[in-house]
Amino acid sequence: MDTDLRSSKKQAFLDLLKKRGIQDKRVLEAMATVPREAFVGLDLAELAYDDSPLPIENGQTISQPYIVALMTEAMQLRPSDTVLEIGTGSGYAAAVLSRIVKQVYTIERHRGLAEQARERLSSLGYDNVSVRCGDGTLGWPEHAPFDAIVVTAGGPSVPLSLTRQLVIGGRLIIPVGQSLHDQKLQRITRVSEDDIRTEELGGVRFVPLIGEEGWRDVEGRLNRPPPGKVEPAAALSEQIRSQAIHIPSIESVDLGGLLSRIGDSRLVLLGEASHGTAEFYEMRARITRELIEKKGFHFVAVEADWPDAAQIDHFVRETRKEPTQELTFSRFPTWMWANRQVANFVQWLRHHNRQADTGDQAVGFFGLDLYSLYSSINAIIGYLEQVDTEAAAVARERYGCLTPWEKDPATYGRVALTRQQLSCEQDVVAMLNMLMQKRLEYSAHDGRRFLDAVSNARLVKNAEHFYRSMYDGSVKSWNLRDQHMFDTLESLLDFHGPDSKAIVWAHNSHLGNAEATEMGSRGEINVGSLCRQRFGETAYLIGFGTHQGTVAAASDWGAPMEVKNIVPSTPDSYERLCHDAGLNAFFLPLRHGEKNLVKELQRPRLERAIGVIYRPETEIASHYFIASLSRQFDEYIWFDKTRAVDALGPEAGKGMPETFPFGL
Fold first, then answer.
1. pLDDT tens digits for 63-75?
2. DSSP of 184-217, one letter per residue?
3. pTM score
């Protein structure tokens, strides 16, 4: 990475730490001094100053910078202190501590990581750090007592050995929780020989603290504390089997029961547990076809960029006859929509609209997402050039504020945040307002084209805000994105009329009710929770899941697509319950399900989510979260073994009339 770019990213990350409440100047100075890029692999160096955890060897992670700063500040350190760290990992946190205190002792249970960290810290000149390989839950009694101890892994309880190795007044910072995905960061202060004081510092997620006084690792499976009085897993899986509706094949299964359960719903939200699984796309397509044919649904809205989906909409409604010069679904991750499964559905939808001969009432295909900042700008200007040349000139001038950042809009967010450049917010808001003020004049020419233009203008406004919010933390940017998707969905419903009905395709994490997952505890919303609030029971939320197989995904953002093997689902997860039911595929009614089973499936458990990035080496930390399945979804569709989508190659760009938009 270019030195200036790394320096600017580092400064942005330090500004973010301050914004998120880190006040200790010594902590901030230490974070500024230690080069985080030296503690990750070369392939991840460009991500070193992103506020996110990164994978390292042995299935471990280097913690999110904010968490390192938070835990370090929570120890209330003095320059004369001696500190014990449990979980050396890459050595980064130990290096930060070494800039603040007199002496750091750190323990790592993986020998390879311990040796690598020792060599790295020595070569970088951090000579007040001692590293050993061992069981961190037992501490390092030879060098006790310690003024502070920090544990960078989550334990089922606080190890007694560690509290006994604190000086009176010493502080222990540790994540604790009976579930790996429901941990609370605690500060334990030893107030006397036999007494401690406990403070909670908030929810966190760490890899398991394994050792004699932590989790027990037996043949690769973690022994957990005895559970509360709940239905045994085997009996619960048998209940699922008895209530499940078997799917013999996607094409042959009778969907009459599902359509009956959906009833008169205005919205049907069809999820997916990954962005690269063929069965999820194929079943969504099959359900969508029947909803259109038998229940008269009016349009499909998907987790895709508006301009790309607009090309599909032109194709299925045959409103553009000439070849397009615009690339369709060319932005990473291309395989998410440029795949054989989507192409087959799009061809079916075009044929349906032809046969139905519905004219302006043809079933449409729309995008809900907001990443297409510059494609949307070009679409707005192109539209205005045809209906109002003076307005087109104004648009060029106003959107020119964003032009320098076309190749990396996230950089615009950083420089606007640090006031190195004035925000473009006023310009993009003014442009949307101008379009809305002229809506009667413009929509009189062609209502659908005006819908396209104003949707793009709304997208540009929200995308500009989204890129600025990326440096305010993941919750704010996530909420802005899902609010935009929901607002776009509402706008489409309004456009199609009060009796219109919509089908939505997106990831489970967007369509399942966020209030029933750990997302809600973090203050996150999603399309599912907003639909539940706005439309109540007239929104039918359907989730999908799988146990193992293959998936199309990348290892890093922007990296090439790979076909990866899915790690079999972890114990204590909903996926393992479904796998142990012993059926290859099934529907599981939840809103209309058997009451005792629905009640049992309300108990929070682990649930897997694979996005466009899949990192099997950090499977639990990266891809599982806590959810209440029967509160999250109205129905769950299970495929035990799945395969990757059939991604289209470079031909998924410019199309010819008969093959638009995929070039098939």
1. 888 889 999 999 9
2. EEEEEEE-SSS-EEEEEEEEE---B-BSTTSBEE
3. 0.67
